[in-house]
Design a protein that fits this description.
The complex is a heterodimer. By secondary structure, chain A is an alpha+beta fold. Chain A folds into two domains: 73 residues, 2-Layer Sandwich (Gyrase A, domain 2), CATH 3.30.1360.40; 148 residues, Cyclophilin-like (Cyclophilin). Chain A is 24% helix and 28% strand. In chain A, the strands form three sheets. In chain A, strands 5-13-6-7-10-9-12 form a seven-stranded mixed β-sheet. A four-stranded antiparallel β-sheet of chain A has the order 1-2-4-3, covered by helices on one side. In chain A, strand 9 and strand 10 form a beta hairpin. Chain A is elongated. Chain B has two domains: 157 residues, no CATH class; 123 residues, Cyclophilin-like (Cyclophilin). In chain B, the strands form three sheets. In chain B, strands 1, 2, 3, 4, 5, 6, 7 and 8 form an eight-stranded antiparallel β-sheet that branches. In chain B, strands 9-16-13-14-11-10-17 form a seven-stranded mixed β-barrel. In chain B, a hairpin with a 2-residue loop joins strand 4 and strand 5. The chains are: A alpha+beta, B mainly beta. At the A-B interface, strand 2, strand 3 and strand 4 of A face strand 12, strand 16 and helix 5 of B.
Chain lengths: 237, 301
């Protein structure tokens, strides 16, 4: 683990610079240890693919002292059983009008849209980090068969809850936003669960599976959520 | 007795937002930090009306709003100098102003500097999002509807007793059109070629019109820039200077995304962010490399 300053109020912890589940597991373990240590000078802990950014108040703790502490925390024995926060099953409708780019990319590759859907919904992904938009999960790693470059012209408006793919990553737009990912479906689940708790749907470290649903199932879930009768146990394992 | 001041916007101005201490602790959810671009001015504005530092303020950029005021309360303006009129009477900056009855507040154009701040005494009746009243840079209509300032938006502020009038003397904001900005080397600093580092530290850069609360895009591009290998998406903070593939510098500001994949050549030290925030498009900067100890020392002054 390499420790470098990122400006005068944050610190970057760099791990092996690669995108893989093992490295990310190390990132999440270190995040857990830092959270548990609850150092008062630390103002935020932000995991990414293979790094952690920490905010700190230099008036509360000098840099060198903080580094010594972080190193000591890093060399502590690992928590014996690290488990992803949660395993989530996300219903996704891969049909029109939601699958904006599915037909085009399957044509490009000379496969059936159904093959892409089967691949996308047939693997377990991990949430590596949240970013780009509040609550936007960067998930991966997609099988090579469904890795596509971003759209050459980004959309000005990607509809909210759109499921997109780009390179080895897949993600969900929590809100309508400009964006360049290839859109292959849409989830009926709200990505900001309630304004009261303000909790976001995903956390870094979550394990995610997509479940293909029909348009009528999509509408049913949407209604159930609207009427507060949706069975959330079907999402949280 | 509770007094109440109501603000109704007849014109929004160029970019008028509500800002408080922001949402730093939610960065791990991809939420931009937010908060005032010029933090010292926001703090002083609140002090002038007897509010705590954590109170929200209005941040006004380049062209100000027209606001109908009604009720009773206190306001104060500070930061960049703007032409401001209360019912056609020029209104002074840097002092507490008592308001009673119906008035029209007209904040004109920035004369010097880029952003001014208006504090209103008391507690603002707004619904916060993630413990902050700051206007969300994304999808504000959904996330922070109360803090979105549009034509006919209304803000109500309640206050129990008037604070003693206060004044402050400030000078120098927006006086210079060329600022020396101190920076620390960024995480990828050593991956840049010698010619591009020379270009970074010896050139004068201008703030382009494509600059806002998310980031300042500078021109010209770095010379001798040979795009290093892409960085795997990693954390950025306000003050981080990214270099795009074409060699353009982007200084990330208060509303920046939380992560990015461009190499980070440097970070502006915290003590210099306020004066950077007061440069108008067209304003110029030169960068000077300092040590982390220098940066922390500058924060104490």
């Amino acid at each position: 683990m390499e420790i470098v300053p990122l400006g005068d109020r944050s610190i970057l912890l760099n791990f092996r610079q690669t995108i893989d589940p093992e490295t990310h597991k190390e990132v999440m373990i270190m995040c857990r240890k830092l959270t548990d240590a609850s150092i008062p000078a630390i103002s935020f802990i932000m995991p990414a693919y293979c790094s952690i950014t920490l905010g700190y108040d230099p008036k509360q703790s000098p840099y060198q002292k903080l580094i010594t502490k972080i190193k000591a925390i890093g060399s502590q024995k690992n928590i014996s059983t690290y488990k992803a926060h949660r395993s989530l099953t996300i219903p996704v409708c891969y049909e029109d009008p939601y699958a904006l780019d599915l037909l085009e990319i399957s044509r490009q590759r000379g496969v059936n849209p159904g093959d892409i859907v089967e691949e996308h919904a047939g693997h377990i992904y991990m949430v590596y980090m949240l970013g780009f938009l509040p609550g936007f999960p960067y998930m991966g790693i997609l099988p090579e068969a469904i890795q596509f470059p971003r759209r050459s012209t980004p959309r000005i408006r990607v509809p909210e809850r759109s499921v997109g793919i780009a390179g080895s990553q897949t993600g969900i737009y929590p809100y309508e936003s400009p964006g360049g990912w290839q859109i292959i479906g849409n989830t009926p689940l709200p990505m900001l669960i309630s304004r009261q708790t303000s909790s976001f749907f995903f956390k870094a470290g979550d394990e995610v599976t997509f479940q293909s649903i029909t348009k009528s199932e999509y509408q049913k879930i949407e209604e159930e959520i609207e009427n507060d009768v949706f069975n959330w146990d079907s999402v949280y394992d | 007795m509770i007094r109440r001041l109501e603000l109704k916007f007849s014109k929004t101005g160029m970019q008028t937002t509500i800002q408080d201490q922001g949402r730093e602790s939610y960065k791990s959810f991809g939420v931009p930090q937010a908060g005032p671009m010029d933090t010292a001015s926001a703090r002083i504005a609140n002090w002038l009306v007897g509010n705590p530092d954590s109170s929200p303020v209005l941040e006004v950029t380049l062209i100000g709003p027209v606001i109908r005021l009604q009720g009773e309360g206190q306001i104060a303006l500070t930061g960049a100098s703007f032409e401001v009129f209360l019912d056609n009477q020029p209104l002074p900056f840097n002092t507490t102003i008592d308001i009673k009855g119906k008035h029209q507040l007209n904040i004109g154009q920035a004369q010097k500097g880029c952003r001014c701040y208006m504090a209103i005494a008391g507690s603002w009746k707004l619904k916060p999002w993630l413990n902050s009243y700051s206007t969300s840079p994304q999808n504000s209509r959904k996330l922070t509807p109360d803090s979105l300032i549009e034509k006919e938006s209304t803000i109500t502020v309640l206050c129990d007793k008037p604070a003693a009038s206060r004044s402050v003397v400030r000078s120098g904001i927006g006086e210079r059109s060329l600022e020396q900005i101190r920076v620390l080397g960024g995480p990828e600093y050593h991956q840049f070629s010698t010619p591009s580092i020379k270009s970074f530290l010896r050139s004068t850069f201008s703030i382009t019109t494509e600059s806002n609360r998310m980031g300042f895009r500078l021109g010209p591009q770095l010379s001798g820039y040979d795009s290093p290998a892409e960085v795997i998406s990693s954390g950025v903070v306000p003050g981080t200077i990214q270099v795009t593939h074409s060699g353009q510098l982007i200084i990330l500001m208060a509303d920046a995304q939380t992560s990015g994949g461009y190499p980070r050549i440097a970070n502006v030290i915290s003590a210099d962010l306020d004066k950077l925030a007061q440069l108008q498009p067209g304003g110029q900067v030169r960068f000077r490399l300092v040590s982390l100890a220098d940066a922390h020392e500058a924060l104490r002054i």
